[in-house]
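PROTEIN DESIGN WORKSHEET
SECTION A - STRUCTURE
LENGTH: 150
TOKENS:
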């Protein structure tokens, strides 16, 4: 006999915090918009299948290729849950940063600023066979900070 098991799929909502250096000859706002569009387009659920892992290095590479981006300083990914988001959690380890961007040793489970530990996973977002990743709110879940030399 054959057995077919049907399970509900899970959405894991992600957000991105990206810090870039922008060439001073480019409009910062335009470069930020293009970075947000690129990440949102890359994470489009119609371009991925259930259970597909995401290689963060591919996103970093594409951001670095954008005109006006001189350097990708950092990229952090968080698992968003709660109000307005799915309650599904990623199975990977989380790390926590303080308001200045420094890694915190004493992890507080109730605190904000929790990010997926990309170093531990070699910059791969792992998912289960019945899950997939989604950026739910384009202009809220992709945050870009800009540095620029004068």
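SECTION B - SEQUENCE
RESIDUE ASSIGNMENT:
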């Amino acid at each position: 006999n054959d057995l077919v098991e049907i399970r509900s799929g899970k959405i894991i909502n992600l957000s991105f915090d990206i810090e870039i250096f922008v060439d001073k000859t480019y409009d910062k706002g335009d470069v930020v918009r293009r970075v947000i569009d690129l990440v949102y387009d890359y994470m489009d659920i119609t371009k991925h299948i259930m259970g597909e892992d995401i290689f963060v290095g591919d996103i970093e590479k594409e951001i670095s290729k954008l005109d006006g981006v001189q350097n990708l300083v950092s990229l952090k990914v968080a698992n968003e849950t709660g109000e307005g988001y799915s309650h599904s959690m990623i199975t990977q380890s989380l790390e926590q940063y303080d308001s200045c961007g420094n890694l915190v040793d004493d992890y507080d489970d109730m605190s904000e600023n929790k990010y997926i530990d990309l170093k531990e996973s070699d910059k791969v977002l792992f998912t289960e066979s019945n899950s997939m990743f989604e950026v739910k709110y384009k202009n809220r879940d992709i945050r870009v900070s800009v540095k620029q030399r004068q």
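SECTION C - NOTES
Helices lie at 28-42, 56-65, 138-141.
The two ends are 71 Å apart (CA to CA).
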